[in-house]
């Protein structure tokens, strides 16, 4: 692991990995055979005869990193003692990631580097979730964090952000993998959350500081999320959601995949239902995920996870209406559910008229019993503790 304390020539040597194109498996094999990045680097000339590399890799590794890049990374490292550059084969490089089909040759991080070796679960999903999806993502993340597991996600808006935010108060055990440089907040609305993760958890990226997000970066980001985690849980995903890419990559990396079911009317859950049809585990609680892990993956949790700390079910608001409520209030309350429901549907269910239902809904909103989501209404879930 390289920090600001290391010589510039070490940092420059690591940054040469950014020149690489094409197949990198021969280089990873050579580094592994040498016993790690530092031994490989120190004895590379002597090792070439035994572990020859394709010419294009040799040319890339013989080309010095751009001075401007070396300077910018050095300046970034010096800005915070918790920042680091981690080449493939370094002692701190996470084993799960190293064993995945396509591990990155270089990682840039800021935060608690020890989390790289901590058992974790990925929680991913839609960037435009329903309020129910946000609540479920937070509850799953809380359950995993309470059990001593690290919550891993991609710092995207929606489900990712909800998972990170829920894990932070619980010892900050969360890793956010970025599709841009570790110094760039994307989306910008998550800038404060990003700083909190850097201070209490871990920010991680395979892109150097100053790299702006591009569409092609996010599938690459997803493969790191999926490979770092023991399992991936998809909370809400539409039919063409990027979360489905994460699920596929997790399966390809030999990880378990779980999906949280939703209402058949909820389009945001259509991708989850598809995953379940295709063989993903059905998860209604964090405990379902822990119980459904393969024996090999579950064994990796034995020293960390605390089964009794894992919630067995997602909180539901099944409370009856207060006994002193008027009849029309009770009718409306019984017509509301946990899924957002349009006003027209509530009128049909309750038998109330529009002039009657409007003031009642407003009063319930003000009392904190009901919340609105783009003109649809649902019961507000109990506050999490």
Describe this structure in words.
With 385 residues, the chain is of the alpha/beta class. It has 3 domains: 8-66, no CATH class; 114-309, Rossmann fold, CATH 3.40.50; 327-379, Orthogonal Bundle (Arc Repressor Mutant, subunit A), CATH 1.10.10. Helices cover 42% and strands 12% of the residues. It has helices at residues 8-15, 25-34, 37-42, 44-47, 55-62, 67-78, 95-98, 131-146, 159-167, 191-200, 217-228, 242-252, 270-277, 286-292, 295-299, 327-335, 343-350, 354-366, and strands at 83-87, 106-111, 120-124, 150-153, 174-177, 202-205, 231-234, 256-259, 281-282, 341-342, 370-373, 376-379. The strands form 2 sheets. The chain has a 9-stranded mixed beta sheet, sandwiched between helices. A 3-stranded antiparallel beta sheet has the order 10-12-11. Strand 3 (120-124), helix 8 and strand 4 (150-153) form a beta-alpha-beta unit. The protein is elongated, with a radius of gyration of 24 Å. 43% of the residues are buried.
